[in-house]
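ok so I'm stuck.
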Amino acid sequence: MANTETSRNNEKKAEAGAPAGGAADTAREGAGGLAGTDAVAEAKRQAEEHYDRFVRIAADLENFRKRAARERDEMRQYAVAGLVEALLPILDNLALGLEAARKPGADVEALAGGVEMVLAQFRSTLAGNGVEEINPVGERFDPHRHEAISHQPDPKVPEESVISVVRPGYALNGRLVRPASVVVSSGPAGEGGSG
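replied:
not stuck anymore, here's the structure
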């Protein structure tokens, strides 16, 4: 019965155009299979090398990301260290002024002069660290840098110009930190609207 099945298979191969000999097929597959096996082995070796390189590069990238995040956090933590160091003498001077003010018979004029000096020192320190004070008295109102808290008629100041500053604004290296709170002129009393 096995011979019958083998012969039927050989007949089917012959009909399909395939060679019918089992031993000849095996010999051909063995010769071609050896070259194919070498190519497959080489491809597997290259794939393993590429995968190994990929894993190393991915690990390097992850390490770089962690290092960059750590450096960013450290920079954020210590970015203001220079400013804090510059502000400490001002803090010391304020403490000395407070101590002098608490003494019996403290000279008010001398205290006021000391506070003015500390304020000047504070402003100078801020300016040295890129902080610009925005005090726009007499300037045209700029909604990007000023905050109008009221409008008042004023015959001496042109309409939409700043009459007075209630609270100065500040910019850090050109970037607005706080707008100046201002009173804006509505022009002479009869011409502009009232606020």
